[in-house]
Amino acid sequence: MIAVQLTMPVQYTLPVQFQRQSDLASLWVGPSHAPVFHGVQHLLNNHVSPLIMWGPASSGKSHVLHATCQQASEQGLRVGYLPWKEIISGGPTVLEDLDILDLLIWDDFDTFFNSTSLQAQWEEALFHTFNRLHEKGGVLVIASRTPPREWTIGLQDLYSRLLSGPVYHLRALTDDEKIKVLMHRANQRGLLLSESVGSFLLRRLSRDLHVLCQALQELDRCSLQQQRRITIPFVKEVLEAF
Q1: pLDDT tens-digit profile of 113-172?
Q2: Are 106 and 71 in contact (CB under 8 A)?
Q3: 35, 102, 210, 219: which could join 77 in a potential S-S bond, CB 3.0 to 4.6 Å?
Q4: For residue 140, what are the β-bridge partners?
Q5: Is 106 helix (H, G, I), strand (E, B) or coil?
Q6: 51 and 168 Cβ atoms separated by less than 8 Å
Q7: If you ran DSSP here, which 8-state letter would residue 189 be given?
């Protein structure tokens, strides 16, 4: 079992977690993100369920999910975030009693298939969890790298339930869009990040958005500590130790 936090008035020990970051209103929204952005806003306001988003790595799925968790929490909703790779060891029983949540997010759903000999039991547990959640007005959000048509779900009732709501496709962000994301996030932190510095980061680091955002966080820390502007020479110094 993994001990993690739930965003609810009473603390529970459950295999559920989420990262705190910006809410949906402060996300940079690219062309392929606009539909899912509005879909999630509609979901939180109207309790529409379920919602599926899929797309490759660095398409921004996790950022949308974490922002959704943050906003829902700020609205007073009870929120749970389940990354499949971290909950698999707990077995299907980890899904018990999650119908107490208002919002349940399952990330890395594509890695669920064929990764456990207990898949049938997991499918059954998720089926019942979703039904109980739905009956109580709770919302289920699923993120996957692969489209639903490629999911190998044996329990057809579960498959049809999951596809009863909207499905959104997020494409991978272009390099220009990643720079815009970095500039937007820097602005939220009260930093001035030029386009040339953003471009430099993409040339020097992995183009993975998680890596880039971690680098920005480190630049923010060092900039505050040293009281220096974020210039290319300064970035070079910081990246030497990053």
Answers
A1: 777 778 899 999 999 999 999 898 898 999 999 999 999 999 999 999 999 999 999 888
A2: no
A3: 102
A4: 104
A5: strand
A6: yes
A7: T
